[in-house]
Amino acid sequence: MKDGFRQSMAWLHTWSGLLVGWVLFAVFLTGTAAYLRPEISHWMRPEIAAATPGPRDAEVAVAAMQALAPNSPSWFISLPEPRDTSIRVFWRDPTAEGRGFRSAVLDAATGQPVAARDTLGGEFFYRFHFQLHYMSAFWGRWIVSICTMFMLVAIVSGIITHRRIFADFFTFRPAKGQRSWLDGHNLCAVLALPYHLMITYTGLVIFMLMTMPWGIERAYPNQRGAFNAEVFGNAPPRRPLGQPAPLVPIAPLVEQARQQWQGGALGRLQVSNPNDASATIQLIRDDAERLSYNPQSMTFSGATGALLSTRGEGGPAAETRGVMYGLHIGRFAGPLLRGLFVLAGLAGTVMVATGCVLWAVKQRQQAAKKGQPGFGTRLAEHLNVATIAGLPFAMAAFFWANRLLPQDMAQRGAWEVHVFFLAWGFCALHPLLRPRRQAWVEQFALGAAAFALLPVLNLLLTQRHLGASLVAGDWVRFWFDLGLLGCAAVLGFLAWKVARHPATASRTRVAAVPRPARATS
Amino acid sequence: MARPGAANASATQGKRPWPGAEARRVAAIVLRVLGGVGGGYGIAALSTMLLSTSLPMPKAEAVLTASMASFAIFAGAIVWAFAARSVARAWLGLAIPAALLALALLIPGWGA
Amino acid sequence: MIVLSFALACAGFAGLCLGMERHYEQVFRTRRIPPARRRLGVSAGWLLLALSLLPAVLQHGWGFGLVWWAGVLHAAALLLALTLTYAPRLVLAWAAAPVPALLLAALLPSL
């Protein structure tokens, strides 16, 4: 019965992969882009000068917040780091619309709000890849989690059904039609299998308290707060006492924290009830220094400077979860290691893409023998080009919007995102008007042109073009511009490859293959 | 009812499929999906609940461990739902563990 | 050190694939692998793959070292697969890579 088992796993693999394949492609591609979240944000705010983090950043930040929001009950401050050299602040403001928060980007040297264009920056790709857009975070996260579960099933069934996983480990036979697509799909899947398993499973674990809350419900019925406190060590919020008390200077607290962490760097600050007697200042260690994403922190009284609590290592399960979360986010990775993560992420993206294309190619070949391709095949082909070629173009359009939209436009950040979806929408409609191969070639070519012209746009519209970045030593922007050209090259290569692809030759090859002998009955 | 994917073999042999064979094939698939996804999630949830309250470690740790393991259990159940030789076997293989887990949850020492 | 890890991984994968008839043929143009060579290829391959963990752990400790090692293995495997397809002879170069890498590691251990 082994063949039957393998066949059923092949069926399961095909459908668990295909039904959500296009969503998974988008998640993988934007997730890979999210590895470069700070770099993208830095590039998308050309007004901000590249700076080096200094020892006084915390003091500057706190002083700035005193000026910006002295009466806010909570300040959340992200300190500069080598990858993103500005101070990013959020604070609670009941008068603000939406979720009641305001945010600002501050210059690290002066604490003044940078007059940077309103943009989501890399945050958009990061958030899109786990909660999509134009829907509540709840629905977005549930949809992505369900698709991730599909992905896990696809991986497991794929491993089971792959007959010659070791023998075919390095096998890639190009220019052989369907066989090449399968080889490519297998290669990307098997060669980076540990990564795919890790990223999928850790992705599920990140939202497990939402998707699998039954353990908490059972063990802590109606006591979510108690569970959170035990695991995350968040001290319960203290009510403001209404007694004004100036915030203690932060420099000695920073020094104390650095000693506790044996030279570790400060990543974030969280201040509750500033300038009140019940104020607390939480110093959170830079999460790029450890595998585990669990924050290590020290909480001090804001009025007296006394140490209230320390959060170090949690229990083994908590640390395991922290490491899983940390592995997924990958913030601990330096440039080279992050490059390896990006490579693996791209392998995953190509794996999903080749899977979707393989199915369509196979269906079309079978249809060539029996007549017309069915609706499912044509739908899959349409979605393939709209997603695999369309999404990269949409990402380039997002960057174009960042450079072209007027600075003082209302809702500018939101409009950059609208442009992204408009471009993607165009790519979704375009295949209706063009023959199959033309659609692919045109969308890839459009994406290539869009990426290639971005550094030119930079030259024309901003002070932060390639040459200027080189002179100023702004390596993030320099390499980013080169990376854009690299994306253009890849998309251009793909356009060229598809244009060259001998479509008629594959049809004759299909005809030349003898029909499976009827004699098996 | 045979596993999905095996049906193609008979379709190409030129025999005329009797009416209802296609409907049965689709029904088998639907039943396996329902069992695998619904039953699988149920088993994962039940085992999370059971492990959260019975693992020999502090409660918060147990909850985290159980929750982290649940997805492997869920995936395993789905694979079983499609690997089992017949739909009946698939459902039995899901219903029995679910029932056992539910019963275990009722035992005072474990289920509290 | 990471360069050494990468070189060892490349050599390890090279050894393993040279132990497979299909890939031996791609590199050496004959299908039949002399049995001694095959055993050498496979055993040396696994050994080198295992050894490639050491420089990563030495430089970065166990936690980060394992992550680095996984990344290095992925990259080396991809490189070998592409080399076999598009420039099979280069596989022999990867097999010899640990030698210069060892030298580099001795001179510039931070790499």
From TrEMBL, chain C:
A Pfam cross-reference name: DUF3325
Keyword presence, Transmembrane helix: yes
Domain of life from the UniProt record: Bacteria
PROSITE patterns per record: EH
Residue intervals passing through the bilayer: 43-59, 66-84, 90-108
Residue ranges annotated for the EH domain, each copy included: 20-111
Alphabetized UniProt keyword annotations: Membrane, Transmembrane, Transmembrane helix
Residues making up the signal peptide according to the UniProt record: none
InterPro entries the UniProt entry points to: DUF3325, EH_dom
Official protein name in the record: DUF3325 domain-containing protein
